[in-house]
Design goal:
alpha+beta; Cathepsin B, Chain A; eight-stranded mixed β-sheet; two-stranded antiparallel ribbon; globular; disordered N terminus
């Protein structure tokens, strides 16, 4: 067995897989005279949507209209019409968010970090491409850029006995706990199926596999969080319900006291947190999102990193 460091990005992608999404239309790009019918027709054409059932289409138009009204309230320039515009919040959460909704008992104090702080694992070529896992292995010099760990093993095997709900929601600390006891294999050995299955113990013990010796929670403060990525990327939990509207720019339309999705904090640059998601290269900014300096979206509330 190879005793090596688990990639944090695996936790962000573990329970949903990766999907490539189309380009988005920012609310600032919506023409003043465009009607709902025009926007709906254009959206369907862009995202290749067809609805055989007229009643279903009528419902989706209502959801589309509601989402449109939501983004029109904001002038940040970071929200717009995306592929998710026919989904209401509950539907979006059930399909794309990796954690059960929870309100933090303790919320990190919202103290901005020195804007001159500069941490960048991406430009150092230490973060794997979208759809792949293994960045911390690369940082430790124990794997190359092609490492790709099995999220399906976590979906199938890190189950209710670890406090998780498989494909319906999990927490990264429980995933770390599982990996301490059950090393994780590669995606080639244990491929992704987009649904929870029985744990395949023969596949999960195949060579190659990787483990950690422990994991640690970052102190609940923005200052501590800013120090943690100096060593390696950090697995965090954030409020991402409004991420479905994200079109780029520095994002801040979220709740600092709740979390519902695991992502990977890789950088702090140009006065903003740089976060890697798992929804494909055409979401956000090439599958990344910039969060406003401070405890935006609860970025500092629940942060963890493994110990080799």
């Amino acid at each position: 067995m190879n005793k090596q460091l688990l990639l944090f990005a695996l936790l962000g992608a573990a329970l949903i897989g990766s999907t490539a999404f189309q380009q988005v239309k920012s609310n600032k790009d919506i023409a003043e005279g465009e009607t709902i019918a025009q926007l709906w027709s254009s959206w369907k054409k862009t995202y290749h949507r067809r609805y055989a059932d007229p009643d279903l289409q009528e419902y989706r138009i209502q959801v589309f209209t509601s989402n449109l009204e939501f983004i029109k309230k904001y002038t940040t320039g970071t929200l717009g019409i995306t592929e998710f515009f026919d989904l209401n919040d509950d539907e979006f959460s059930a399909i794309y968010l990796t954690e059960n909704f929870s309100q933090n008992e303790i919320t990190a104090e919202d103290i901005p970090i020195d804007p001159s702080t500069n941490i960048n694992w991406v430009t150092q070529n230490k973060v794997t491409p979208v759809k792949q896992q293994g960045g911390s292995l690369i940082i430790s010099g124990k794997a190359g850029q092609t490492i790709d760990l099995s999220e399906q093993q976590l979906v199938d095997c890190c189950d209710q006995s670890y406090g998780n709900k498989g494909s319906k929601g999990a927490f990264k600390q429980q995933a770390f706990k599982y990996i301490l006891q059950n090393p994780i294999t590669t995606k080639q050995n244990y491929s992704y199926k987009a649904m929870q299955q029985n744990c395949n113990t023969s596949k999960s013990t195949l060579y190659l596999n990787y483990t950690i010796s422990d994991y640690k929670q970052v102190d609940i403060s923005t200052q501590a969080l800013a120090q943690a990525p100096l060593i390696q990327p950090v697995a965090i939990s954030v409020d991402t319900k409004s991420f479905k509207y994200n079109t780029g720019g520095i994002f801040s339309t979220c709740d600092n006291a709740i979390h519902n999705h695991s992502v990977l904090l890789v950088d702090f640059q140009n006065d903003s947190w740089i976060v890697k998601n798992s929804w494909g290269t055409q979401w956000g900014e090439n599958d990344y999102i910039r969060l406003k300096n401070g405890n935006t979206c609860g970025v500092a509330n629940l942060a963890f990193y493994p110990i080799a």
